């Protein structure tokens, strides 16, 4: 009953935000680089920040995590309302990442790993943000990740946090996973969720000692990293909007409906996670299955990407 009340609380918060967004014109207007064709409310992902604050009030989230997400979410929401200079955004990301590492370092000696973890969290946050381009893709992928993390024994203490985030995601999905979305996550949603998922991933690896949990982010990782590398090779400005992710080719050039593409991404990632959890096993890190997985998946992804682009 409690979680049902919380779900409707998030739904109410979304509806209240819609009225404010319409009043103050927090609208995403399509351009030549967009994958949508009509103006849509931006910033609906603020509900993810709200979930973290509620978790903190209940003692399910630490103050560094809550402050980090509130900071980066607040700056990102301002950027959704009126584009900011890169300096405050970069500063917010760096400070929020430092707070996450402060939290992760409690009870664990990060030592020389701090620079690498900092780089990974910053990189993941930006890659995840780049992937937020069609209806449903961010929230469906996030739900798969949250559900997978709920099955990790080492994260049993985070179950209430995961449930609150899942309920907020379901509330957002109600308005976003549609042919004509009522709202987009905006930077406030994609950046906040990216940092939350990055935090959970690093915590999982630190507690379990198993880096194979990184495969929980396989599909997003492949599409984001390979696209980034190709744009760097072509000497493009990687901070400028573009339409060269695989999901964008599928939704735009191939004409596959957004929600179908998003479901395919989430479904494939769910299948991969199920194979690792129930098939291979995550009790310890296994080199041979991990190498075999990488050797099989990367060429398959590149081959499909090449075939699709050549076809269209």
From TrEMBL:
Chief place where the protein resides: membrane
Intracellular or extracellular location(s): Cell membrane
Keyword tags: Cell membrane, Membrane, Transferase, Transmembrane, Transmembrane helix
One Pfam family this sequence matches: Glycos_transf_4
Keyword Glycoprotein: no
Membrane topology (UniProt): Multi-pass membrane protein
Molecular function terms from GO: transferase activity
PANTHER family (UniProt xref): PHOSPHO-N-ACETYLMURAMOYL-PENTAPEPTIDE-TRANSFERASE, UNDECAPRENYL-PHOSPHATE ALPHA-N-ACETYLGLUCOSAMINYL 1-PHOSPHATE TRANSFERASE
The protein's name: UDP-GlcNAc--UDP-phosphate GlcNAc-1-phosphate transferase
